[in-house]
Amino acid sequence: MEGGGNGLLLDWQPNGRNGKGTVTARLNGEPIHVDILTLTKDADRARFVKKVCEGRDGINAEAVADELRRMAADLASKASATPAVDDIHELDAGRIVRPERIITPDLSALAVPTMTTRDGRPVGRWLQYLRWPDGRRERRPLGNFIDLQDGRRLWIHPTPAEPTPNTPAGWSARARAEWLRGCPAPDPSELFKRVCERMAFFIDLPQEHAPGIVATLACWSILTYVYSAWDAVPYLYVGGPLGSGKSRVFDILQRLIFRPLGSSNMTAAALFRTLHANGGTLLLDEAERLKQTQSPDVQEILSMLLAGYKRGGTATRLEAVGDSFKTVAFDVFGPKALACIAGLPPALASRAISLTMFRAASGSDKPRRRIDADPDGWQRLRDDLHALAMEHGPTWLQLPKRVDVCPRMSGRDFELWQPLLGVAEWLQEHGARGLLPLLTEHARQTIEASKDDQVADADEILLRILAERRANAETPAPGEILKAAQEAEQNMFRQWTAKGVSNAMKRYGIQTAKSHGTKVYRVALDDLRQIQTRYGLSLGLQSDGDEATETHG
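Structure (tokenized):
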């Protein structure tokens, strides 16, 4: 509408049935009032006119009212016209997009929950931020569709419920305003470096493992902002003994990833309804309960997780409708991270990249560092991650095509690692030197280790055997330790290999050394004592001061 004075425009987008919709009044291109009303109701229209004209001189109230009546008449006219079957346009499913994150060749968009007031009370509303291929940046209320520049239309589904007043925005109001004003996007390699430095500041890792683990966490965090460009995304499994820092990793991810949804005790129904309505990244701590497969609720959660790593993955449920039921499919596709001590069910583990955490070294101050001592620093990282994701919109669609980043990977390994390696190669092209080979080597080691990955009980048995042999001045090979383990626990180690023993020892920083062409263990008893103390294991080693009965080989 024009004619309300001073360049006033009215825009209406449907939001329900019977003429209910979101009406936006823009003055000289800037929104001055947004409201949800039923156009056919006189009271709703009168309320809208009053709010638009309140405190603003030069706006013609009658012209605004006339335009609203015209819009209502047009709507009634369209509703009364029932098209013939031949005239019904069949909608292309590719034109239906989720609201929280849109990446198409024509558009990059994010929906952000914001707070405002209505009738003197705080209320939430969704704003949509859009970046067009020509670089133009825009903000508008979230509607049911987006008209592209070539006349085509994207339909938004599902329509999220109005956000609650305490829903975190993620992307701060200050940063969004700067972005709209044309503030340059962050340098990708510099941002990646800052994310890695922030993670390394709080997580204590052995020197030889730290670069690969931190790079994996940082690339996965970036992936959560652009995952919709892929047809399948890897889960992250954070494992390790009790007290090894798994929850600390989740605390860090909670402050960095896109739309984090933390849950350790949510019911299955609450989980898949929340994911369907809001999207985002699930953080499922204390995931040990997923092995309680006799529980119907756990079965539902596990089914949802098994389906949710691929586009189109849904949780299907029978919902009551009156006196009958109908089948409803909830969209649960998206990145997810899981943490537990005892490992994941095999089918779920095959969908996850495994990261094994280590207990902090004695005297390390990292576990004592307060994560929220610098909230502004976390916010700057989140703001820059949002801006990075928006700036390079359609570019992300090219990354799934980079199949050459996964040499000698096939099947599920390729599906898990290609998204992270694709992001790593892109970051390397933008200045993160050496990132791709670093992450490729870490991927290779992780894939090898996962082949024989077992529960923590197996680790303790292997370490105890090694400690016994070293206390007797022996230098056992991995195969000799495996033979002894199989004699002690035949069922547990039936499928193990000497390579699996070697990988298990590496998780505790224990490496082999060559002796006459054979790889053997020469680890010092002092190092094994530290592992015994740090992880609370029973390796049969005496404490310092009683070393006389032990012999070093």
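The two ends are 89 Å apart (CA to CA). Residues 1-5, 545-553 have pLDDT under 50 and may be disordered.
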